[in-house]
């Protein structure tokens, strides 16, 4: 209790008002000093109060209860309450607000009573500080803490080892299922209900903040107080340091990332499943391809052999029948190939080899294939050669030619008798080359235009029995798009169509063409009989027979056959052939394994080995090439091409 033996209220007022040094001290202070008489009436208010409250003069309020009735009731009540407590001897610091010019201003005020020697109250002082800006910061912080979905924490560093939780925001308490935070405040952090792994990770992160002063981020799986798992991405940073610059407290901001982590895990799982399914599809395609091509090999191969057999000529009727078998077989093979192509594209298993392609060479090569077809149908095939520039495009040579041939063959197939087809190319906007095929054919009815690139859609073809699968355009579109191009068409029903595709120009000028050597129909004249030995290893008897019969057209080749890889290896060691033809899929030991064994044997390791297989999948071709097969011939065997390859290799 403040006891002032010799100072009366009047003397005090006189001193603050008239003593120039006291007055200037009081009036210059940023603190608003007020003096009240024992009846709580204002007797003095210093200048900072007048300024803060934006009133004309302090004197207007002298002799009145202050704050006046204009002030908010809450403020009047609190001041009134503490004035009474002061009159009973208590000193208190309180906070209250005023509204000045529609803005709220806050004061922190210390109310103190002064008594004379007899214990009579002589006056009360109230010293107020404007704390509006502190209040605003506090309010912002509180709003942030209350509304942020992030779990904010304050963690103190113990004197001994370990950490203590000092604060946790509402969001954190809710996320962790904490109903009474008092049970955790002032207690060790991380709390005991966190799994060991998370506790270790958090402690390590806090240790690192203490030792380096740098923020640390850690993602860990926790559980809430009910044991429900949740993922937190937490950042720990320095909050305060002591005078010795040692870290004394740390803030933690943890974000609940459970949903993200769960989604990512689900995504990774479904990706894995999709990859597995894709793998299975690819495996199925590979098997299908093998199963379908094996019988086709026998059908087409023996048909070709019969047609070639000049020693026992067939009747005209038999030749016609053979022609039918051969063309039906070709059609079936085309269908198998196209369906496999389509499945490969759709399952993402088609690998393209994109490189600069010289357009003139591509055209020449495609037209050499297309010309016989046009001749056969009586269609004039014209090609407008671009003599000026030697254009190159960025594309996969084989696939680009496949697209071009498909469009030309459609233009021929769906043409009118005596009609024509014109192929041309030219530069397009956007660094593309447009290759166009114009025909004078039937055109496409407008109601069918939208479906032209859909698989198995064919229009008006049944009537005229035009061969086709209805997949060519679907594949062409996909291939062109895979090569970064676009495909399109214009058509007038009954007049003709213009199909085109635009493909990116290459800035390179070189473009070596992978030319296919035209099949050599005349057997290579080699004098000495049996001066070359070929070993053929295959478990299918019809395949062995077919190759046997084909090679009977090459008198200088002695063919050895083996129905299993094991026997084949033994025979190779004993006979040292000039060339080995190896089937890939065989029971017990497959062709790839047999190849590796031959590589390990000194006598056989330098014999060239060619894969002869119905596996037409890119992956198999790659695998065979990788382990060192010299070449790859896929079944069904084209008799002419096969002989040509043999001639080349055994030269
Ligand atoms: P296919 O020729 O094997 O039937 P495509 O996918 O190449 O398969 O073509 C689908 C259909 O589009 C053809 O069956 C035909 O009805 C129509 N078509 C394609 N090109 C032309 C064209 N140049 N003129 C008229 N119709 C065409």
What proportion of the residues is helical, as a percent range? 40-55%
Give the C-level CATH assignment of the largest domain. Answer: Alpha Beta
* Rg over C-alpha atoms, rounded to the nearest angstrom: 48 Å
Characterize the overall form: elongated
Number of helices: 17
Give me the secondary-structure category: alpha+beta
Report mean pLDDT, rounded to a whole number: 87
CATH architecture of the largest domain: 2-Layer Sandwich
Question: Can you give a write-up of this model?
Answer:
Strands 1, 2, 3, 4, 5 and 6 form a 6-stranded mixed β-sheet that branches. A 6-stranded antiparallel β-sheet has the order 9-8-7-12-11-10, sandwiched between helices. It has 4 domains: 3-132, PAS domain (Beta-Lactamase, 2-Layer Sandwich); 148-256, PAS domain (Beta-Lactamase, 2-Layer Sandwich); 354-504, Heat Shock Protein 90, CATH 3.30.565.10; 532-650, Rossmann fold (3-Layer(aba) Sandwich), CATH 3.40.50.2300. Mean pLDDT is 87; it is low at 510-527. The radius of gyration is 48 Å and the shape is elongated. It contains 17 helices and 24 strands. The chain has 651 residues and is of the alpha+beta class. Bound molecules: adenosine-5'-diphosphate. Adenosine-5'-diphosphate binds at residues 406, 410-411, 414, 439, 441-442, 444, 452, 457-459, 461, 468-474, 497, 499.
